[in-house]
Design goal:
Helix 2 crosses helix 3 and helix 5 crosses helix 9. The radius of gyration is 27 Å and the shape is extended. The strands form two sheets. Strands 4-3-6-5 form a four-stranded antiparallel β-sheet. It has a two-stranded antiparallel sheet with strand order 1-2. Helix content is 45%, strand content 14%. Among the domains are: 87 residues, no CATH class; 97 residues, Chitinase A, domain 3 (Roll). The protein has 329 residues and is an alpha+beta fold.
Length: 329
């Protein structure tokens, strides 16, 4: 998605490249033509502009960055030429990777066309989202936490019984030390917007006199609340963030609907016993392959990682943590 800042950056790059060409004394080269020829293979201004756009370089670093990126393009072309000379480009692994990249680029272009027709969220939609999620905004709370992390294998019945009876994380760490169970203890702050709704509601309901347990990547987290503070987020500071989130939701829905439409008119056969749909009841029509294809938009950065207590300034999404909730209490 090209922004005015990005267009300005590209415009500045055109001026710098023109100066570079003038200094080189090659008067035949003009903006829009090849910048360098490497054994007959041209590197163009279009390639340079594309790399500059992807690098996110600041305007004050544009001149030096343009020179560095141009040299890196030359180095890349030399490597590509040598790989082709040694026929590395014909190996099965490389050919498969090229086919996948080609399919991905084409699919991305199509999805960009589909999503380009979508309207931005209206002010009413943004206001409704703000009002319907008070714990994300108007009534947002900050929770100061103590987190004790142990290996899930060490979470035995004795420790569970101690947790049920204890109201202090200090009692737990003392017991862990006494029984030589390895653990780490850290302090953290999370807001109710950083946590899954069920977890946030439970923490606010049970408060400081409770030790919460959840799972994360093979570890058990014992979480104690030290304090709960008001941390409201005003509408004027949330509108832009909500807009990005709603755009992301619209894009996701549009892509899912388009894939469903395409599937309904296609003849799809699952071949072989291992990949047969009839032998795998977990395959769903509406999400097959959707993880790897998303429109290239700014709002995709709103997706969270899968860590239960991961800190983020972005709004929760439908992909917000589910796995660790099974043992949360």
């Amino acid at each position: 998605m090209r922004t005015p800042k990005l267009l300005k950056l590209i415009g500045l790059s055109l001026i710098i490249v023109a100066l570079l060409l003038a200094c080189s004394g090659d008067k035949k080269n003009k903006p829009g033509q090849a910048l360098v020829s490497v054994d007959g293979n041209e590197i163009t201004m279009l390639q340079l502009n594309e790399e500059l756009a992807r690098s996110g370089v600041r305007a004050d670093q544009l001149e030096s960055a343009s020179k560095q990126i141009l040299e890196s393009l030359i180095a890349r072309q030399l490597i590509v030429d040598e790989a082709i000379r040694t026929k590395l480009d014909r190996t099965p692994e490389v050919m498969q990777a090229r086919d996948r990249a080609n399919a991905q680029v084409i699919a991305q272009a199509y999805l960009n066309r589909v999503t380009s027709k979508l309207d931005k969220p209206s002010k009413t939609e943004i206001d409704e989202y703000y009002q319907s999620h008070p714990l994300y905004f108007e009534k947002r709370k900050q929770l100061d936490l103590t987190i004790v992390r142990i290996a899930t294998n060490d979470f035995n019945s004795e420790l569970k019984s101690l947790l049920d009876a204890s109201k202090s994380i200090d009692e737990i760490t003392t017991w862990l030390d006494k029984n030589n169970i390895k653990h780490t203890r850290t302090l953290a702050s999370r807001t109710t917007a950083d946590l899954p709704s069920d977890m946030a509601d439970s923490m606010l309901e049970k408060g400081k006199n409770h030790i919460f347990v959840t799972q994360e990547q093979g570890n058990s987290l014992l979480v104690s609340i030290n304090s709960i503070k008001d941390s409201p987020l005003k509408h004027e500071f949330s509108a832009r963030q909500i807009e990005k989130f709603l755009i992301n939701q619209k894009y996701k829905q549009a892509i899912e609907e388009e894939v469903k439409r395409l599937r309904s008119s296609a003849k799809i056969e699952y071949l072989g016993t291992k990949s047969s749909k009839s032998s795998n009841s977990n395959i769903k029509d509406d999400d097959t392959g959707m993880e790897s294809i998303q429109p290239d938009v700014e709002s995709k950065a709103l997706d969270k990682n899968d860590d239960i207590l991961h800190s983020s300034d972005s709004l929760p999404t439908n992909r917000t943590i589910e796995r660790g909730m099974m043992d949360f209490k």
